Amino acid sequence: MIVDCAHYKDGRRQDEGKLPLDQAASCVTGAPGEFIWLGLLEPSAEELHEVAERFHLHELAIEDAAVAHQRPKLEDYEESFFIVLKTARYDEVAEQVHFGEIHIFAARQYVIHVRHGEASGLVGARKRLEGRPELLRQGPASVVWAILDQVVDDYQPVVQGIEDDIEEVEGQVFGEGDQPTERIYFLKREVIEFHRAVGPLLVPLEILESGGLTAAIDDELRRFFRDVADHARRTDEQVSSQRELLTSVLEANLALLSVRQNDVIKEISSWAAIIAVPTFIASVYGMNFVHMPELRWRIGYPLSLVTMALAVFLLYRFFKRVGWLS
After folding, report:
1. How many domains are there within the chain?
2. What would the pLDDT profile of 266-307 be if each residue is shown by its tens digit?
3. Distance set, CA 215 to CA 108, 209, 210, 261, 294 (Å)
4. How far apart are alpha carbons 1 and 45 in whole angstroms?
5. Given 133, 160, 190, which residue is the final one in a domain?
6. Which residues lie across from 2 on neighbouring strands?
7. What CATH number does residue 80 fall under?
8. Residue 239: CA count within 13 A, CB half-sphere
9. Most exposed: 93, 231, 234, 237, by fewest CB within 10 Å?
10. Does residue 222 fall inside a structural domain?
C-alpha cells in the first residue's frame, strides 16, 4: 500500500496530495535538490514490482525488501543505496516490545521506503523535515537522515520500558511473591532481539556520518548523521547493560530458588525426624512383649508418653536452634 508519494524541489513539496506512480516517475528531471519521496507499507508483490520498474530498482534489493526479517545493513548498488533498519515500539499495556523493519532505496532522484510492521510510523519524520526546507534542499540524503533519526529516537522509550520491567522483576525476585523465572527469560529474549536491531546499525551509521559512500552529504548534514550515530551508540550501550543485568537477575533468581528448596527440604526432614522418635517408641510397645518389665509398672504407660513428648520437644528445640525450622 502506498502511504504517501510526493515531489520535492528546492526544499518544498510541489504537490498537495499523493502523486500517482506514473506521474511521480515523470516528475524527476535530475536537477539538484529535486526528488521523489515514496512511502510504502507492506506492499504486495505487484506493487513492489511496479515501483521497481518505474524507478529501476536493483533486483537484489527488491528481493530483500519483499521479505522482512533482514538484519540492519547498508549496501551500495553504484547508482543507489539500500538500507535496512529495525524498528521497535514498547507496548505499555502488554509490557512487550514489537519489532518491525524499514527498507530504504536512496538515489539522487528518489527515496523509497518500505515498512513492515507498525513499530515506527514515519509521518512525523516527513512533517518535521518539511518544516526545515534548508535541510530538505540537501535532497534524498536529508530524507535518509530524517528516517534514521525517527527510528533511533523511537528506541529510547523501548529502553525505558525494558528498564522498568527489569526493576519490577528484581523486586519480585527478592520479594516474597511468585518467582518470575519465565518472565525474566522472555524479557531477556526481547533484549537480545532489541540488541540485534541496534548493534548492527552502528556500522552503517558510522559510514554515513563519515561520508564514506557519497559526497552528496555536505558537512552540515553530516553533523546530523553524527548526532544520530551518537544516540544509537548510547542506546546500544544501554541494551548491553540490560543484557548483563538480566543475566545477573536470572542467576540470582535461580540461586534463591535453590536456597528456598533447601529450606523446604530441611523443614520436611526435621519434622520427619521429630515424628520418627515417638513412632519408634510406640511401635516397640505395639509388639506386645509379655516380659517387658515396664509393663508391670503403674507409671510405665505414662512414662513412655512423657518420654515421647520430651523427645519431640528436645528435637524441635534443636532443629529450631540450627535454623531448620522456621
Report:
1. 2
2. 778 878 887 887 887 777 666 655 556 566 667 767 777 788
3. 11, 11, 10, 65, 108
4. 11
5. 133
6. 40
7. 3.30.460.20
8. 24
9. 93
10. no
- Model confidence over 35-63: pLDDT tens digits? 999 999 888 888 889 888 888 888 888 88
Range of the domain at 296: 259-321
Residue 214 in any domain: the answer is: no
pLDDT in tens, 197-241: 999 999 988 888 876 655 457 777 888 889 999 999 999 999 999
Residue 58 belongs to a domain = yes
| 3-state secondary structure (DSSP) of residue 71 | coil
Cell representation of residue 107:
538515489
Total count of residues recorded for the chain: 326
What band does 160 get if pLDDT is binned at 50, 70 and 90? very high
- For 3, list phi and psi in degrees, rounded to 5: -80, -45
Going 90 to 91 to 92 to 96, the CA torsion angle's sign is negative
Give the CATH number for residue 308: 1.20.58.340
Adjacent-strand bridge partners of 36 = 7, 110
pLDDT on residue 138? 87
Identify whether 227 is part of a domain: no
Out of 88, 114, 133, a domain closes at 133
